[in-house]
Amino acid sequence: MTDYIARINPVTGQKQSVEDHLLAVAALCQNFSSKIQLGNCGNIVGLLHDLGKCSQEFQGYIGEVTQVGGSTFKNRVLKPDHSSAGGQYIWNTLSGDDYSLTGVAQALALTACSHHSGLPDCIAIDGTDCFGRRMLKEEFRTHLSEVSAKIAESVYKKLEKHFSNRLFQQEFTKLVTVIKYQKESQFASYLQLGLALRFLLSALIDADRMDAAGRNVRPGEDWQAQTECLEQYLKQFQPDSQLNKLRQDISEACFRQSKLPPGLYRLSVPTGGGKTLSSLRFGLNHAKINNLERIFYIAPFTTILDQNAEVIRKALDVPPDSPFVLEHHSNILEEKQTSLNEQLAENWEAPVVLTTSVQFLETFYSHKTGCNRRLHNMANSVIIFDEVQALPEEMMFFFNNAVNFLTRICSSTVLLCTATQPPLDKLDKDKGVLCFAPDAELAPDAWGNYTALNARVKLENRSKIAGYNLEELKDIVLEQARQGKKILVVVNTKAQAKALYISVKAAIPNVYHLSTSMCPYHRKQVLTKLKYQLESNESLSRPLVCISTQLIEAGVDIDFEVVIRYLAGLDSITQSAGRCNRNFKDKQGLVILVNPGDENLDHLKEIQHGKTVTQRLISEIEQARDSNLNQLLSPGKLSRFFDYYYFQQRGVMECKKTIDGIEESVLNLFSNTHNGVKAYKSSNKPVPGYCFYQAFRTGGENFRVIDSPTKGVITACNPDAESIINKLCSLGDMVQLGGLLRKSQQYAVNLFEYEFEKLAELGALHETQPESGVFYLERSYYDSEIGISTEPEAQTFKFC
Asked: What are the backbone dihedrals phi and psi of residue 123, each rounded to the nearest 5 degrees, phi first?
């Protein structure tokens, strides 16, 4: 194998042998997969994953690639299959009458075959035995006999030892036993087993990419310096008010309970209760005590991550450009099966990682290897979810099973932080419910805290049957503005935000706009200006109006005197109310509920459904004697909202779709009960003796956290962004390119597919390097106040 080339560095031209690559990847993969006690399994797949590269066909291919200067050789229709041989070798060697051994053989064969393509369908949705076909793939395509004879002695000796002592079989059998011991439904158990397989593949993918890029494993943290730094930082906060006393009580409770063992916990704190620092205090001390490797902050909105990252860096005295804290919240990198693209994919190895709910769920369920790569780094970690109630209902069972896998199999701790805790432990047990640790609530007197903080505002319902037009909504805003108030308006769509912003700005100065059409850099600028003006006593700071989508209603520490909220789900209304009189500056703030008459929520069915349930609750309160609309913000009403909401949406949670003419639940595809298994049985064939029947690829391809997936693009919105783009277009060094991608996130905006396609048609999008999958947007299609526009008028659009 020393004579066979595995890869050639496109910059230096340095060659790596297949033998050296297999041994290096095997060592890394064993290290990563040991996190769930599958170290020997990881070593085996590492030793065999690129066995096919020893074929004469592949060696001819890589020689041709070298001749064209390191870029992909264009004259070939397909790159030679170098992944199947390793999987076939494992399957042919280990499968047989021993069901236990055959089960682990299938797991290892699937992993070895899938490190570039992602996990395949084992049994396809139409009943095809795809795994069996892959194992019987023709010799002239996989070259199994040829490459088996070329296994290097160093590799063969390690394999011989594995196949002799069978420690890998013991590991896998123990894992299956642990999953079955949880006494969940058969459906949930098979789904968990599928996630374990994805974990093993994650370890292989990251090991392969890291060795290819010449990267070393980052050393672990003991968290001592960080905990000391945080404790020093917290000393500046004194319990000199009702709110600060409450925040300190919550912080101290989190500190005391950081000694708890790893598990699943809640932190139920009303908005303004100091969740970010309290959860950080718990996370750091918990990681230190339990020797955990990383801390993750996961949130639905990038504005929460923007603020949390700023708070964490300040509290831990971490410079903005330090790799200690990673913000990963944009799909800048479009996945492609090219060496450059694969090596640039983020693997979440930083000690503190801030990312979105979308990125989290795609790590577990997407078919893309760039997503799957990150999974193993979530083991042995503290994972803090902020505003978990914002998850789409179609994702609840996916989320529950992922969290259970992390806490039960990966030895991680998960903490759910929100003012509006959804009942994720009370859903369908067969599909997967959360299993909280005993005494899971970290917050002291959670219900009492809600009563105290909800008294900060008065809730007023001004919705009417016909709804309001744009002019009437502007008048409601101006009515409060004429009183010199500082006002937040939270709307349901970006189009509503833009239209109302333009209308109000034409009438008064001091108006701000916030939406996800803007890049994080400009959103941060707006929030900085807003915070200054909200704290200011200068006469010029009044009136003030901020018009925002729901991105501002969670995790953003900001305080207005009046909040006007377009009618939505009660969880959203509660979060918006938390931006009103947040710091008890007034005796009572005002929250006004309104309903636009021409609202189109066809593509936002969750908001529409939540709005309907809220209207039902408002009606119940208004029909009661001595009704007080502030009851709407009570924990009891919030609990009833979720009961109504999830009961009516229980069918939606299985994420049913029509795939190739077959109606199927996407959730089922990740377990062993999908229609393909039934179709296979109905053809009078004996069911193969497999452990895995999942349709992984079909499930991953049809998995969408949101109905309309997004693609991140970098906006050339200022000289710094343009400088980053220029470097991305010219550099070839993997380490530098990876660092630039991280820096570029502050200038990135996620586009829906139709927006991306329209801008591409206009010639406004450009790929930084061929096959990189990284795109940038011309400056003329971006405005610092409005954000991205798909209309050519954006080139000259300016306010007077």
From this structure: -115, 120
